[in-house]
Amino acid sequence: MEQVLFFVLMIGVLILVHEWGHYLLARAMGVHVVEFAIGIGPKILKLRGKQRRVGDVELPRTEFTIGALPFGGFVRMLGTDPHEVVPPEIEAVSFNARPVWRRFLIMIAGPAFNILLALVIYFAAGLGASELPSSLMGSVDYKGPASQAGLRPGDRIVAIDGDEIRYFWEIVERIEAKVEEGEDPKSGEATFSGVPFDLTWERHGERTTRTVKPIVFMKEKVSGVPALGVNPVGRIGVKQDNVMPLIAVAAGSPAEAAGLRNWDRIIAVDGVAVDQLPLALDALYRTAGKPVKVTALGYTDAAANGVAMAIASARMVELPADADGSRGIYSAECLVYGVVPGSPAAAAGVMSGDRLLRFEGVECSGWDFFQQRLTVAGSKGGALEVQRGRDVLKMGLAMGEVAWPDELRKDATMPVHGLRVLYLDAPIEYIANEDRIIYAWHYMGEGITGAVTSVVSTLGALFSGQVKLKDSVMGPGGMAQLAAMSVERGWAWFFALMAGFSVSLGIMNLLPIPILDGGQILFLAIEGVRRKPVSMRVRMIATYAGLAFVILLMIIVTRNDIERCIG
Predict the structure, then answer these.
(1) Which CATH number does the domain housing residue 225 bear?
(2) What share of the chain is helix, strand, coil (3-state, %, to 5)?
(3) Does residue 151 form part of some domain?
(4) pLDDT in tens, 43-98
(5) DSSP characters for 348-371?
(6) Which of 55, 90, 388, 528 is most deeply packed, by most CB within 10 A?
(7) pTM of this structure
(8) Is 181 found in the same domain as 163?
């Protein structure tokens, strides 16, 4: 029942806002509204507005109605029905009596209000963010520009080109813009290169500034759908995501001699609690020249009443002084916990307990970026080096494909390698959002740009044949499935979904199809150029053709929705 309520609430608000835009602009442009309707089918509620007059002549009262099915709505204005006879004494407030520019504003108001609703939702979401991820580094790509400049996990970026940085979103925004366009002298094609900038970070209270040149990454306009186009953005190989201090222990190392084991979890170093791997490794590094006490949790597999479990036990060990501070401890992200039977990794010969050293010559410093390199290599694959005991083994590893697990993409596939590593996401460091207005504008800009780009790119790829209608369009059934997820994911998901659908509804209504707002706007544009309205015969033929197109489209999307549910 909750799922149905979420869906009805969402689609009801979207339609209400759309039709409210038409209604308000009609009133503002001096056009009388005969009926304001939300929903279709039998009317379950009808209210009548107050009496209005033109001079001494009474206008028909506006009816406000709600239909039984929440799948549409309309604003019927005086004179829009071609068969309606408008008395001469009230013709001045009919739709067709108004100048073209006024009728244009009325028709475009519905889509505009849908875009406005999305803007309000995104701005409110940004304004409501009391805390934001800080500029503390989580993962750093070993071969990325930031790492080559000396940045390490656990460092805090404090400035870019001398401008203060406090939040991670500022890092992303500033670095993505560090791209300049050029031209290939031979082919004349556009080329893109990174623009060097000064990056300042803080480590152990000391600041370091280096010049960094970002690499250019072709970012998908719509995530996961490269066919819809890409944009060049700057990247330096950093992420805010972090992991808890689960460790791997090198064979014959001081850590192994002291009793630490693979997949232990460090919880304190010299009595100071640590909850992120970079902070634990940093604490070991800072005590390189002296012994250090490490408290760790070890896990033992057990079972009770047929239920498998892991029992944790804490122990404190003392590690000796060490030249580089590691004492043979490194991230468990690069330790194979398991291999899926029959997977590409199993076929390559990877075994549980192997340490991932390098792929295509790039060292494993964290699972996130390492897995990304495996994915980029795809079915072509590359050379993988692992350490097994004291031996280093070389083998080839390429990605395979399995069915996509998402119910809404049952015909799609996803790449797999079959490697399993054991790690736990650590809490990202959040700090107070002291620039709420600035962040709200940023969040609104990012949100509306992404939503508009997604819809426009999808439509463009659809009409050009780059993507299939089946894979790119959903109907009420698909919307209901997504809205139903709000029960588990909460109001933030619900409103984000509403903003995206609102943009989609606004843009779709601008398509030049006669029964949509875009079709009426096209007729008005022709009338403005020709100085006379399009003939009724042409309008009727175009309207029937548009109606047939929309009915066909609804049949297709409804079939898609059914296939998603039962496929």
Answers:
(1) 2.30.42.10
(2) 40, 30, 30
(3) yes
(4) 889 999 888 888 778 888 999 999 988 778 899 999 887 677 888 888 889 898 89
(5) HT--TTPEEEEETTEE-S-HHHHH
(6) 90
(7) 0.73
(8) yes
